[in-house]
Amino acid sequence: MPRFPLNLPRSRMCAIAVLLTACAPFAQAQTEDAASAGAAQSTQSAQSQKLSTIDQQFLQDAGQAGATEIAASKLALTHASDRQVKEFAQRMIVDHTKLARNLDVLAKRHGITAPPAADTAVIGSLQNLQGAEFDKAYIEKVAVGGHRKAVELFRKESESGNDTALKAAASKALPVISHHYEMARQLAGSKAAS
Q1: Which parts pass through the membrane (predicted)?
Q2: What fold is seen in the domain 51-193?
Q3: What is the pTM of this model?
């Protein structure tokens, strides 16, 4: 307890004592809040440590695949010449943005806060293309090739991932990604025929 000068009037000393007594619960509450925050932080750190290498790799690869799909599809809206390619790209932006949000929530629960970047090699190979040349490359590399890899990635996580929430998310997303792959194959077939 702090020392006070002895020459203070008794009424002032009583007022100081009452004030200190009244503030004590607040100081204790702040100490408890700090302890709770520390426990939450260590729980988050423990969750991050619990995530297996397989699950961490899935989050990284799925995040990069989604970011690549979104970035390439945004390019398609301005670089593609075919209406069907643009419609496909618009659908991919909507669906993969939603999927990315869901994966970001799961990643943040495990202390992973930086969203993966798009594959710069794929995006770089598309940036300078226009019209039919862009359409062909986008369909081949992103629509068909990207979704083929994504189907395998999500299937693997849904079957052999260790984190139950990630396995469930992969299982839930797999039919959507498989449908995208089928749409991409149909789009590729219709463009090859014309």
Answers
A1: none
A2: Ferritin (1.20.1260)
A3: 0.73
